[in-house]
Task: structure prediction
Amino acid sequence: MEILVTGGAGFIGSHTLIALIHAGYTPIVIDNLCNANPIVLDRVAEITGVRPRLYEKDIRDRGALRTIFEEHTIEAVIHFAGLKAVGESTEIPLEYYQNNVTGTLVLCEEMRRAGVFRLVFSSSATVYGDPETVPIPETARTTATNPYGRSKLFIEEILRDLVASDDRWGVVLLRYFNPVGAHPSGRIGEDPKGIPNNLLPYITQVAVGKLKELAVFGDDYETADGTGVRDYIHILDLADGHVKALKRVDSDKGVFTYNLGTGTGYSVLEMVKAFEEASGARIPYRIAPRRPGDIAACFAHPERARKEMGWEAVRGLQEMMRDAWAWQSQNPDGYPESSD
Ligand code: NAD
Ligand code: UFG
Result:
């Protein structure tokens, strides 16, 4: 069964390709490579024995989408493609809305034209803003504090309107918490451009000596040790969630919203300690001011995904750290620029 994966060469997409192949699907990738390296597909082939077909195209390119839908029998679409840097989104909001929102509109129009009505969309826990309570259920109020988050909220609303208007659609909105780790082979992983914004890639780059020390953004939050608490989820668990989501809309129509998180929150200092234990490396850190826009604690109520999709995260913190380290230590500079 052929599945179109937009943004399939990216961090979450590439790990999901492996999960799809292992589950017997044939993923077809469309990615404009604005934040990815095509070598990823060679690495996926090394791991699985299958090299997914890549269309190096933008999802806003209708002609490209039409070609793909004509050349393949696509049963469903998993839609990762988008821009994702919160800070950047405040500087270039138009590019974010254009890429994320317009990209999704074009994709849905071309899906409808091709008679493909099953869609799994990458949303984010960012739609909960600063939550009133944790753990956060899917029914919590949603809000956005930056253009990136607003693009996710807008897309969720657009997809709800679409489903309400046309009962042929089956749409799953997956709200990811904090994906970390890598495939245990260390062959694929997260390859941020420039200095990482996210905690774990920053820690692993300190460990390989690319960065001097970690700045811990605030130790005066209302959490057990004062540092920010998040729900870190192993990327392979997250990838499996997409396979379950596809099955969710095998026959059911409508719109379904699920948190993909573990339900457990860890603080920044707990993360540092766990990484040191798993890697044997020492992570020097200093306490720095709070990062604007950050919240104290964010972790999922993951029950709905378990009950309705039979999905739950099974990998623990040590596995996340071990696999993140396998990737970073084997690829200190990320993916090479040309095929190795
Ligand atoms: P990523 O940047 O690694 O992957 C996104 C991929 O989409 C990249 O390969 C990029 O080249 C491609 N892309 C971007 N715009 C495109 C376009 N217009 N046409 C074709 N390809 C395009 O990011 P990721 O971490 O794998 O995230 C995947 C999705 O999950 C994104 O939508 C992101 O917003 C969402 N998400 C990520 C996180 C996270 O922490 N990583 C959390 C919540 C939600
Ligand atoms: N942190 C540091 N130092 C760093 C980086 C992060 O102390 O150098 C702290 C943050 O203050 C926060 C925690 O580590 O307490 C996690 O920060 P991340 O940047 O890794 O993750 P966020 O929860 O802030 O944001 C991530 C994605 C967003 C997404 C959100 C919810 O980057 O795009 O998860 O899914 F919206």
